Amino acid sequence: MKQHHRPLAKRIIYVFLEGGLSQLDSYDYKPALAQYAGKPLPDSINRPEFTFAKQGTVIPSPFEWKHWGESGTYASDLFPEVNSRFIDDLCFIHSLNHKSNDHITAKRVLHTGVPIEVRPTLGSWLVYGLGSMNDNLPAYLDITPTDPNRPTGFLPSKYGGTTIDEIDRNKRKLEWENLEQAFPGQEEHIDFIKAIDAAHAPDPELDEMELAFRMQTEAPDLLDIENESEATKKLYGIGEDHTDEFGRALLLARRFSEAGVRYITVNHATPRYGNLWDQHSELEKGHRGNAHAVDRPIAGLLHDLKVRGMLDDTLVICGSEFGRTPTFEFFDGITGKHQNGRDHNPHGFTTWFAGGGVKRGYHHGATDDFGYYAVRDKVDIHDFHATLLHIMGIDHEALTYFHGGRDFRLTDVYGNVVEDILS
Amino acid sequence: MTSLGQIPVFKAFSNAIPLAGIVLGLLCNGVKAEESPVHWSLRPISKSTVPEGENPVDWFIEKQLKDAEITQNPRADRYTLLRRATLDLTGLPPTREEIADFTKNSAPGAFEKLVDRLLDSPHYGERWGRHWLDVARYVQGTIKVPGIDKIDLAEPYRDYVVSSFNEDKPYDQFITEQLAGDLIAESAESEDEYFDRITAPAFLSIGQWYDECTDPNKLKLDIVDEQISTLTRAFLAMDFACSRCHDHKFDPIPTSDYYAMAGILRSTKITEHFAEEWKDGRPRAVRALVMPEEEEKIAETETKIDALSKKRFSVLENAKKRILTEQPDRKSIPLDTTIEEVEAEDFAGHKNLKITSSEDREFIESRRLLDQWVKYKFTTPTEGSYVLLLRYASETDAPVELEINAKTLEGEVPFPATYGETAEHFRWTSIWLPDLKKGSNYVRFKVDKNMPFPSLDRLILTTSPSPLTPDRLLDKFWPPTTAEVEPLLTEKEKQELEQVDAQMVALRKELPEAEVTLAIRDRGKMIDLPVHVGGNTYQTKGDPIPRGVPSLAEAVMAFDAPVPDNESGRLQLAEWLTDPKHPLTARVMVNRIWHWHFGTGLVRTTDDFGKQGAPPTHPELLDWLAFELIENDWSIKHLHRVIMNSATYQASSLETDENLERDGDGALLSRFPSRRLEVEAIYDSMLASTGKVARQESGKPLDTSLSKDRALYILTSSRSPMGLGMEIRKMFPLFGYDPSGRPIHDRDESITPNQGLWWLNNPLPQYYADKLAEQLCNNFENDQERVQAVHEIILGRPANAQAEAAMLAYLSHNQDNKKLTEQEAWSRICLGLYSSRTFSHIE
């Protein structure tokens, strides 16, 4: 399929902070939290009937907040490098919302549009719709996902993502399965296989084997970041204790994007500072440590894309499967011993975009005074997906796949493109 | 079509009310079937007559080929036929002996005999049972999607399915057992039949759900929805799930029909308890595979044990009274070896436990019977061994694994039962902690899934040189609780206690160690559900809909068996589905069988016989087969014979210019459609090539212990496969196996570059290639023999001149140019043969 309209971006890099970045401690400033610290939420604030854990009183943000950049965006000091260098390049949606308040279904909603059923991801839809930009590489990569081999649902598995991960813990190298040549002379080996099939039936097709062979010639070079300059490595924080791991992942994302991969997710889920970005307790320590690990690499990625002229047609997305509650949660049962963590909150959270297709230094939508529910210019997941497809040149209503008796869409029967954020 | 939803409340059983307003009305008014608005799949099954002496399958296929002016391919050669039939019916390649036997046997009826032998093979059930397990969305084992509740104990259902196919269980009985076996178990005529019937309804319980769903009311309806979607697609090839929110857009399924069926399933209990908060667990119900008499006996024994544990406690209570009266002034001796005292709720981390408070004390207890652990941090002044005092209570013996600084200690800490968890049941115990470091240490107590975890109250780390005996503990912690007075009993009290304990031990021995299976039962109180507007959990419309069967077949079958007030209605649902007049049940199943034989159904959409599904390519044949199934006591093996003994099944798969031009997609069956094998057959074929699958004799019952390394069992159990275990597990999803737990009606046959990479570089095919090469070099004298042998073992036929030349050339290339040893060179040949298209395809 070709694009329905001129695309605003050619590729997407989705930086996924798994576990739930707190909007209330990063980009959605709510002075009411400090005023109401230790008190229950006022009755005027909408709240869900069921929460993931029992809720306590309001807790303030432990981070410092100030104005950043020319746009004067008010943000916490959680991401100092991104904020000081790129805040004016970012486009925020503060009113993203859905209904899934556990990680699994929320992640599925984010990636596939539905919570429970196994459906294709945004990446699979893009590959199905747009195909590949490089015949020697897969069109869709998941870098360090926590749930590798995401099934493609009703789409054939050829539209699935290829996983790049640390396969051998000892090697500290990101690679993908079976890519390394097990023995030399594979061209002759493939010729032999062809000869066997030819002896059996005319015209054997071994396209996939040949494509596999070609992948082996291109992908290993891309995976090998040693030939990058020291300056570039430094940009991403590679070689430094906290940032090395994620820096490598993001540098790979840039390299593969450049080589023509259309859709890349990079998952940040290292449980080094607690449970990923899922700070049910110890919010300050956990978020601070996590942010420390990704701040430099993300700033490095944005910088790198910019100087290579790629930011104009690459959309970078950064966010979580949901945000967090204004209240502390009764972590570990009933005692409320740890009043320093926040519960899951899918009802109103923030995700930012940068690059191809979106406005710079722009804020869209808002949550209530406590950052619990989206209240203005709400953006649901179908709107989010419709917008991303639109940016890639696809009309979300026209991208369909016939299955089980009907045409399916990524956006089901919903979705409105959020025109306001488009550049 | 007018909106079906306009009929406000629709009674499922009443023939007086026309089907959804119009369908039956038009039929009754004498409208011809062709013009009738009734969709083809809902019309009565009609049986066309086939001229005497004609093979019915071929007759119908031939008719359409003639119309298209195309001739069917001739019969495939014997090697191809043998490999096709053997893989198709058993998922295994033929052995060299079988190849020799069959290709030499030119007697008439040889192929029929082959089919008979394969149908009698115990491996038949392993292959065709697996097909059904796809439809039943069976998954188990370590391939799983995170977050979905993992199902244990589904293996008895798997074995039930396999043996049902092996026994050629009539399909109507197979349906009834899976929907309502528990309800008819009492009338079983044998123990095996009884176990079948209580095992089979696991079909309803093995669906996946999100155990982290926070809204319990929604989850209850989600579970029902999953069951409805699975069963309607499995048996009716219609997805009723659409009608949860609105009348089906294309097919005659009003929301009222959905909720009539939803009531049936809401009235069916599949969980043990269903906690309001997800963290408290919603475990699936299980039952022992024992006969009812034995079940009663077990219950009796358990009651007796309960009574004894109460008696035991009262002995101790009396003793405590006596002791406190006798020693009114006794005081505890302060513990002078304490380093650190920790309340149990001040843990450094935990999983699936919770803090509870009672009688002014807080303690931690089990929350969900999954993996449970709790971790404490202790700071020590010097390195060395310490003693930990721990106050706990537990209904039953609760042995716990101990881990110090992430190292698991051998053996378990016993935590003997205190037979209750009130304050009086708590007691102190003493544990040896070897090799603590100086400074911070983490001590973790953990148990596996489904094991009890003791309730913990307080922990004291001491420098005591050795664990404290019960006497010494009493000195330190006076006055004792009831559970702690044991060391102070009089001889008489001791005897009394010993007697009780001996009785308990004897009774426990009487409890059989029975296998456990998922339990499905009717609830005590039935639940009718009203229509939920837009599928919304909290917004309903109108009165509850009485439980009942769907209305879509009313035009062709009168069904009048209302659901009794005290039954869920599963049995009536099964009766309705298995009514010989049912327009869908037989059609759907024969289509599946056709699909599994040919790779494509006569109706291509095997799970959609609705308006949006594909129409049948050969409607008369479909109906003829459906009739044949019903008339032959729903025998699936009979259908295999009918299909496989046709020229259509035996035609060559050769693609010619003619058949590609006029029958491009093969729908007319001008040739046998070649297709990629399922991953199980690919893996098993590799495994079998190295002699690792013992072929079990036809006519004998299946011995799973001989088959346990086959993909079926690796995929469907938690057992680690031998050798390259992880690689085996990773292979499955790469070749189209979907471990997500949704029903699979058509395996994904995509061929992807990542599969190409796998054949080239993965250690697994390499491993089998090495094994086979070793056998070839040891067992055969020369390269000519090896060439023929390996070609036959892997591809099911001798090498022709072209193949032989290619193999010998590649062999010498590897030996001469690449300097590989003989065995290495042969391994490369084996790998090449495995990697060929021919190997992974059925032709």
Largest sheet of chain B: 5 strands, antiparallel
Share of residues in helices of chain A: 25-40%
Mean pLDDT of chain B: 90
- What portion of the residues of chain B fall into strands of 2 or more residues? 5-15%
Sheet with the most strands, sense and barrel status of chain A:
10 strands, mixed
N- to C-terminal distance of chain B: 44 Å
Architecture (CATH level 2) name of chain A: 3-Layer(aba) Sandwich
**How does the overall form of chain A come out from the CA principal axes?**
globular
Task: Pick out its properties.
heterodimer, A: 423 residues, alpha/beta, Alkaline Phosphatase, subunit A, ten-stranded mixed beta sheet, three-stranded antiparallel beta sheet, 19 strands, 28% helix, B: 843 residues, alpha+beta, five-stranded antiparallel beta sheet, four-stranded antiparallel beta sheet, globular
What would you say this structure looks like, in words?
The complex is a heterodimer of chains A (423) and B (843). Chain A is built from ten helices and 19 strands. Chain A is of the alpha/beta class and 423 residues long. Chain A has a single domain (11-177, 224-421), classed as 3-Layer(aba) Sandwich (Alkaline Phosphatase, subunit A). In chain A, the strands form five sheets. In chain A, strands 1, 5, 6, 7, 8, 9, 10, 13, 14 and 17 form a ten-stranded mixed β-sheet that branches. In chain A, strands 2-11-12 form a three-stranded antiparallel β-sheet, with no helix packed on it. In chain A, strands 3-4 form a two-stranded antiparallel sheet. In chain A, a hairpin with a 2-residue loop joins strand 18 and strand 19. The longest helix of chain A is centred in the C-terminal third of the chain and has 25 residues, at 283-307. Chain A is globular and about 80 Å long. Chain B is globular and about 110 Å long. The longest helix of chain B has 35 residues, at 292-326. In chain B, 42% of the residues lie in helices and 12% in strands. In chain B, helix 8 runs antiparallel to helix 16. Chain B has five domains: 1-38 and 170-286 and 515-573, no CATH class; 43-74 and 584-672, no CATH class; 290-330 and 479-514; 333-475, Jelly Rolls (Sandwich); 761-842. The model of chain B is unreliable at 1-34 and 142-146 (pLDDT under 50). With 843 residues, chain B is an alpha+beta fold. Chain B has a five-stranded antiparallel β-sheet with strand order 4-7-12-9-10, with no helix packed on it. In chain B, strands 3-13-8-11 form a four-stranded antiparallel β-sheet, with no helix packed on it.
